[in-house]
Each structure stands twice: as structure tokens, then as C-alpha cells.
């Protein structure tokens, strides 16, 4: 049985979440979605009526918020101060503002500490995010960086959301580009592959093939 830490980083729309969940299930491992934590922090910021670009105010609100996420692949549990926000964190307003919130260093320090505590409690875990292999768990058993061509990512996201018109797909592609640009260019923990990460390009692979590759890499490294 697998024991260790698998990190799965990469930009939005690569199928990271569904791959991470499926791999965790097959490995009998816990699963941590760190993006859900930054999204939950964004809910707290929006509900406080604070400007997401106001780093000081954002840090203050998030420091006072109790953010809780589950660590099993089967069910998603995301709460802010005891309120279930699992659906809300996937909404457009949160998605639009999450990159600004997650660029605030104090927010990152707080959530990274929490992520390390959650990971320490599991003997086998798959953790997905942007900076897991580079910052959160530099000593992980196996690090994977999942990429895909921008057009493939926009198409996939559109299919997920049930959007079909060329205008809708183009708007989505623009939003993905903006978020990736923001995540890759921020000063604190930018999105990039760790030096020792295996880069997997999912443009021409179906989900099962990517899951197989992740599971094989994990078992080979353990
Ligand atoms: O993965 P997901 O799309 O849910 O992540 C939402 C946002 O949270 C990302 O665009 C990024 O700004 C932020 N994030 C981050 N570091 C992580 C995970 C997510 O900055 N480890």
C-alpha cells in the first residue's frame, strides 16, 4: 500500500482536481484541495465587504476566519466559520477574486501552515494546488506538474460548465489566461514546476491515462 505524499500542481483547467481525487482513491490516500482553501478565504473576504485588492484588510479578515476543509476524495467539505460554502466557492464571483486574495503573503502563510498540519495527520496523501511541490511540501515523495495546451484547458472547463457558444468559450479562455498570468507572476510562491517535478502534459491524454500515470509514479517512488 502507498505511503507518502504526492503533489499535483499546475494551472487551471488541466483536469487536476478530478485526476487528484481519482488517484487518491486508487492509492487509498487522503486528498487535500488547497485551491478550495483559497476559495473559502475569498468567500470570507467578499462577505466582509472588503476590497480583495486591499492586502491589509484581506489579511485581517482571513486571519479571523475559521477555514475548514475535508481530506477525503469521496466527499467535499468546505466551511467558513461553520457555514457550508462548498457550492459557493465554485461560483464566478469567487473565481474572479481568488487570485487577488491568494497573492497576499499573510494569507498564504496562514493557509500553508494549516495545509502542513492537515498533511502531517495522514500517512498517505495527494495534495493539489499551485505551490505544493515548490513551497508547501518540498520533500514530497513524488511531485507532478500537470499542464495542457490553453485551448484544451478552455474547452475542458467549458464542457464542465455546460457552455457551448464560441463567445462563451473565448471568455472562459480569457479568464483562465488572466488567472494563470496572475498566479505565475505573483512575488510570493508563483505557479511553476518544482525542479524535481515530473511534467505531465494532458493535452492528448484522457483522464484515465493521466490517473494511471500519477498512480504509477507514486507507486514507483514509494
Ligand atoms: O485550483 P483552483 O482553481 O481551485 O484554485 C483557485 C485559485 O487559488 C488559483 O487560481 C490560485 O490563485 C489559488 N491557489 C494558490 N495556491 C494553491 C492553490 C490555489 O494560490 N496552492
UniProtKB/TrEMBL annotation:
Domain Cytidylate kinase residue range list: 6-217
EC number: 2.7.4.25
GO biological process, one term: nucleobase-containing small molecule interconversion
Catalytic activity from the UniProt record: dCMP + ATP = dCDP + ADP; CMP + ATP = CDP + ADP
CDD domains for this protein: CMPK (cd02020)
Keywords: ATP-binding, Cytoplasm, Kinase, Nucleotide-binding, Transferase
GO cellular component, one term: cytosol
InterPro entries linked to this entry: Cytidylate_kin (IPR003136), Cytidylate_kinase_dom (IPR011994), P-loop_NTPase (IPR027417)
Binding site for ATP: 10-18
Xref: Gene3D superfamilies: P-loop containing nucleotide triphosphate hydrolases
A GO term, aspect molecular function: CMP kinase activity
Top-rank taxon, per record: Bacteria
Subcellular location: Cytoplasm
Enzyme class: transferase
Entry-linked Pfam families: Cytidylate_kin (PF02224)
NCBIfam families linked to this entry: cmk
Similarity remark: Belongs to the cytidylate kinase family. Type 1 subfamily.
Name assigned to this protein: Cytidylate kinase
Encoding gene per record: cmk
Amino acid at each position: 500500500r502507498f505511503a507518502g505524499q504526492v503533489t499535483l500542481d499546475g494551472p487551471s483547467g488541466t483536469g487536476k482536481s478530478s485526476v487528484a481525487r481519482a488517484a487518491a482513491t486508487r492509492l487509498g490516500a487522503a486528498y487535500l484541495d488547497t485551491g478550495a482553501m483559497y476559495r473559502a478565504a475569498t468567500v470570507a473576504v467578499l462577505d466582509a465587504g472588503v476590497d480583495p485588492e486591499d492586502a491589509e484588510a484581506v489579511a485581517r479578515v482571513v486571519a479571523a476566519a475559521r477555514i475548514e476543509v475535508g481530506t477525503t476524495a469521496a466527499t467535499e467539505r468546505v466551511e467558513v466559520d461553520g457555514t457550508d460554502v462548498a457550492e459557493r466557492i465554485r461560483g464566478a464571483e469567487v473565481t474572479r477574486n481568488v487570485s487577488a486574495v491568494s497573492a497576499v503573503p499573510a494569507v498564504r502563510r496562514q493557509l500553508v501552515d494549516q495545509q502542513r498540519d492537515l498533511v502531517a495527520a495522514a500517512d498517505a496523501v495527494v495534495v493539489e494546488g499551485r505551490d505544493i511541490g515548490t513551497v508547501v511540501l518540498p520533500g514530497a515523495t513524488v511531485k507532478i506538474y500537470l499542464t495542457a495546451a490553453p485551448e484544451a484547458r478552455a474547452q475542458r472547463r467549458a464542457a464542465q460548465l455546460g457552455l457551448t457558444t464560441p463567445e462563451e468559450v473565448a471568455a472562459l479562455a480569457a479568464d483562465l489566461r488572466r488567472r494563470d498570468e496572475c498566479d505565475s507572476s505573483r512575488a510570493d510562491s508563483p505557479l511553476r514546476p518544482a525542479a524535481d517535478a515530473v511534467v505531465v502534459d494532458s493535452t492528448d491524454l484522457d483522464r484515465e491515462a493521466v490517473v494511471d500515470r500519477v498512480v504509477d509514479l507514486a507507486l514507483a517512488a514509494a
